[in-house]
Amino acid sequence: MLRFLVRRILGAVITLVIISAVTFMLFYAVPRDPARLACGKLCTPETLELIRHNMGITDPLPVQYWHWLTGIFLGRDFASFGHCDAPCLGYSFVNREPVLSTILDRFPTTISLTIGSSVVFLVFGVGMGMLAAVKQGKATDKIASSASLIASSMQIYFVGTLALYFLVYQWHILDQPSYTNFSTNPASWASGLLLPWLVLALIFTANYTRMTRSQLVEQLSEDYVRTARAKGLSSRKVFFRFAWRGAMGPIVTIFGIDLGVLFGGAMITEKTFSLQGIGMLAVKSVTTSDLPMLLGIMVITASFVVVANIVVDAVYALIDPRIRLA
């Protein structure tokens, strides 16, 4: 296990370096003048020159990237902003604040949205998939499969807008979506995020229902499951000890990827409900051409996905005894 983790961590570092290099090239090399792009419409010659100086675009592109990369581990000095302590992802051209501190300030909203919705769609999605697999071919299976098909075809911005209009503004069943620090008021934290949790979980619940059902139906038809039944084991023991354990692999894989992506910001959900998370920050950075912020968000999001994949590979060895990590 230790050799596996060391090897995967080294591979993850190389992957992140490649991703950051490609992203840096796209953001800083493709535009004809990145400084003017970051300066915006109301740009004075003085501001433009200041941005060029801060971005270091007078240096060759590899030198620019090296300065940015070493800033993550050693910190970096800026003419206008002073010293940026490691890990330094640069300064935003919009709020003139460190990129990393801005992202960390938005992260509690995103992690609250991710964890809450993940609990909902895992419980309901996997639960409905298990029920549909057990009741294969019956009315319960047909209802669950039809409902998941309909839900998976819906879009968050459509469902979210309808839910806001009816559940919040018209019927006053749920509170206006907002974020409150959990340590300050847990009840307000949960009530403010309940509607975004449900809407975001709706799409994922449908996907996990279909995936769980298909995997369990396949496992229940395997020879080793039929052998276990022939030996007289109870249906409950056969289901959970053999079929369910064999079906968990693909579910864990997809959940790890989904979780990593959600930690990087659920853009449509945050935009729909005006939640100031990483996703909303990414949208604003695009509209304002805030290149340092966009680069930082890309690296952070990629890091979550890479770490999630490492965790998923390690979990495989726990749920499937046939897999050994060297």
Strand elements, count? 2
Oligomer description: single chain
Classified by CATH, the class of the largest domain is Mainly Alpha
Q: N-to-C SSE series?
A: HHHHEEHHHHHHHHH
Strand content: under 5%
Question: What is the radius of gyration computed over CA atoms, rounded to a whole number of angstroms?
Answer: 24 Å
Name the strands of the widest sheet in spatial order.
1-2
* Domain module tally: 2
CATH topology grouping of the largest domain: MetI-like fold
- Based on helices, strands and strand pairing, what is the structural class? mainly alpha
Query: Major β-sheet, in short?
Result: 2 strands, antiparallel
